[in-house]
Write a structure and sequence with these properties.
Elements lengths: L3 E6 L6 H9 L4 E5 L33 H13 L3 E6 L3 H9 L4 H18 L3 E4 L9 E7 L3 E7 L10 E2 L2 E2 L19 H22 L2 E4 L8 E2 L2 E2 L7 H8 L5 E6 H5 L6 H9 L4 E5 L2 E5 L2 E5 L8 H10 L5 E3 L11 H23 L2
Helix pairs in contact: 2-4, 3-4, 4-5, 8-9, 9-10
The protein binds manganese (II) ion.
The site of manganese (II) ion has 6 residues, from helix 7.
């Protein structure tokens, strides 16, 4: 069966036109990135607003998360001859107090359990998630990729504490949120406290995921720093996933395996990481992207120009029998009338050809 090509679509791109674009570019699978409105339009993707609202405001009670919403989403994708492989990321509204260990925690855990049961009922096999308090924060945008194509990077910024009302780099409580922290900030979170919150989350949700037949797939922390804005990070070293997987042997406890984030980790060998973790059989799907540099300074690149030999990554995956889904994650924006589309089509075409050649050459 081999490796499967997919495309991740943001919340405001979940339409038949975008699904057909993915199909036309050679993909067979869709990953639906659920929270917020990350893309302002088809042209540019919101990346970094250091001093203000992060990735923006979360939407309350988005009906897409109901049984009917997820059923209709899957039906829309299937109607185009495509497969809905995964949902990516809970909305901050769903679990801010799970991450922050706040008073709504238990009610929010119940809601997350309900979402996972609904996914099982609808038939969506993977829930990608990023158990992170600070989230993907602090990135800058610039002409970092080949030919001056605009991409994102991380350049070791000052790290103010997280204002109340924000988690996961999104505002969940606009009443309370003040970008300058005038209404207070999130207290520092130690690695031990974060681990306790994470394992409590797994203890409650893994049994639900097993019963529903849904794989929970954890994204590593991007940027992979030990702490960000005073809060610890879960997977920020080459061994980080090892500890996470060792916590529970369930095949429903897996990875949203981000090659880009893993290669941003200092002191790691990306090929060893790909080899080690693809042998576990616990990759829910792969974020296939390239980057130049490691924390605290790196820039995202086109798939074929960063520090990582992505063909070697595919060769290792093929050798270890990986037959799951790969999506481009993000790509630089290409200078034309449709920068996002062009960047994704370039990555998908490259991946399609590379996978075909590698699988053709493999015994
Ligand atoms: Mn990623």
């Amino acid at each position: 069966m081999g490796m499967q090509l997919g495309l991740g679509l943001y919340r405001n791109m979940l339409s038949p036109e975008y699904v057909r674009f993915a199909k036309q570019a050679g993909a067979t699978h869709i990953v639906a990135h659920m929270p917020g409105e990350f893309a302002r339009d088809a042209q540019t993707v919101i990346t970094a607003d250091r001093a203000d609202g992060g990735f923006g405001r979360d939407v309350s009670h988005d009906p897409i998360w109901t049984f009917e919403g997820l059923r209709d989403l899957k039906a829309m994708i299937n109607a185009e001859g495509m497969i809905l492989h995964a949902l990516e990321n809970f909305a901050p509204q769903h679990w801010y107090d799970v991450l922050l260990d706040g008073p709504q925690r238990q009610a929010q855990i119940e809601h997350l359990a309900q979402i996972i049961r609904t996914m099982g009922r609808v038939g969506i096999p993977v829930m990608g998630y990023n158990f992170s308090i600070a989230g993907v924060w602090g990135r800058v945008e610039g002409p970092f990729a080949r030919g001056g194509a605009v991409s994102v990077g991380y350049e070791d910024p000052e790290q103010p504490p997280i204002p109340h009302g924000m988690v996961w780099n999104m505002v969940y409580d606009p009443e309370r949120y003040d970008p300058n922290g005038a209404n207070g900030t999130v207290a520092p979170v130690s690695p031990e406290a974060l681990w306790a919150r994470y394992t409590a989350f797994l203890d409650e949700l893994l049994p639900v995921a097993e019963e529903a037949g849904v794989t929970l797939a954890l994204h590593p922390d991007d940027p992979p720093l030990p702490t960000l804005r005073g809060t610890a990070r879960l997977v920020h070293t080459p061994d980080g996933y090892g500890r996470v997987l060792d916590y529970h042997p369930s095949p429903r406890h897996g990875m949203e395996f981000c090659i880009g984030t893993l290669s941003e980790m200092p002191g790691g060998n990306i090929y060893d990481m790909v080899d080690r973790y693809s042998r576990t059989g616990r990759i829910g799907y792969i974020h296939f992207r390239n980057v130049r540099g490691t924390v605290p300074t790196y820039h995202e690149t086109f798939v074929d120009e960063g520090d990582t030999d992505m063909l070697e990554v595919l060769r290792i995956l093929d050798q270890n029998g990986y037959n799951g889904v790969l999506i481009p994650d993000h790509t630089p924006l290409m200078e034309c009338a449709a920068p996002w589309h062009a960047g994704m089509a370039y990555a998908l075409g490259y991946m399609r050809a590379a996978i075909t050649l590698i699988e053709r050459a493999s015994p």
